[in-house]
Amino acid sequence: MARAKKETTIKKEITNERWVDAYFNHNFNGRLTSKSLNPDLTLESAEVHASRMLGNDKVKELIEIKHEQIRMKSNIDLEYIVSELKNIIIDVKQEQIERDENGKITSKPDRKSALMAIQQLSKIAGFETKKVDITSGGEKITISFLD
Question: Are residues 48 and 1 in the same domain?
Fold first, then answer.
């Protein structure tokens, strides 16, 4: 009996590790990850499965470990990301919009691609924070300011 329980635990650990590896390979898209590992799932079922996996404490721990491994291997830290952001800002400020003789824009700074690259780098390194929506649940809120 104990041996069967141990084998089940080992299978779950392997499944969790496979899922986390695929999650990183699929750009942190849980639904795509679950669908790729279980092609017979509908998109809705894959989304539910991904939600369960992402809520699993062992999976959360594996994700954090993998983020840390990437940070250490790639020597990515918050200081590096800030430095890169500053360099991009400086580069974009120095780039000029180029126009032809008719005033039509022929070239402009590629701010969007640069920002997307930094956002992705931050996400891979595990520095991206989740946004939390705090609402009043429909209740009226009165805020008083002191003079």
Answer: yes
